[in-house]
Amino acid sequence: MKTDGQTDARVIMAATLLLLTALPPYRLTAQTDVRVRLEARGLPAGLVQQISAIAADATAQGLPAGPLADKAIEGFAKQIPAPRILAAVRQFGVRMLDARTAVHEAGVATPPADMVTAAAEAMGRGFQAADVGRVVRAAPRTELAASGLTVAAALTAQGMATPRAVEVVTSALQGGRTSAQ
User: Fold this and answer.
1) Which backbone phi and psi does 45 adopt, to 5 degrees?
2) Cβ-proximal residues to 178 (8 Å cutoff; 6+ apart), any chain
3) pLDDT in tens for each of the 181 residues of the chain?
4) In angstroms, how far is CA 1 from the centroid of its own chain?
5) What is the pTM of this model?
């Protein structure tokens, strides 16, 4: 079949538009948002590029990118060397995967970003998947699980043993306490 240059250009343009509309827009936005946030905080260009790549990989796996940027910004603000920041961000990404699995196994088919992040933070404080699951299952509504995990992790950070923190939070959730309480 013979085509002219204009037809070829139209086919390429149509294929490109089709591809761009098939890509989930949140992936492009999340990656751009991470880059913009990191640059706005003054992180060096090389570090921004590496963190953005990690965030893009996380987003491709259905994980939130924002918490990874937060970790990098926190490390940079504390003047931690770039290699340690990268290691911490990568480790947090792995922990978010584990957290999402723990939350999913607790019965939340599609966990929201804040729940995955809270579960990852709790796991960083020594919680096991079973601990995360207990808190998630105790929450009468899905949106309370993230708050419960955050409170339980905070109790652990203040010196309370993980089993006791989980017990306190699950009892409060089962007793009808709100996230503010």
Assistant:
1) -55, -45
2) 144
3) 444 555 555 545 444 433 333 444 444 455 568 999 999 999 999 999 999 999 999 999 999 999 999 999 999 999 999 999 999 999 999 999 999 999 999 999 999 999 999 999 999 999 999 999 999 999 998 889 999 999 999 999 999 999 999 999 999 999 877 666 6
4) 50
5) 0.78
What is the three-state SS of the chain? CCCCHHHHHHHHHHHHHHHHHHCCHHHHHHHHHHHHHHHHCCCCHHHHHHHHHHHHHHHHCCCCCHHHHHHHHHHHHCCCCHHHHHHHHHHHHHHHHHHHHHHHHCCCCCCCHHHHHHHHHHHHCCCCHHHHHHHHHHCCCHHHHHHHHHHHHHHHHCCCCHHHHHHHHHHHHHCCCCCCC
Sequence-distant (6+) residues with CB within 8 A of 100 are 62, 63, 111, 116, 119
Residue where the block lists tokens 């990118």:
65
Answer yes or no: are the C-beta atoms of 112 and 147 closer than 8 Å: no
Nearest-angstrom CA–CA distance, 124 and 54: 19
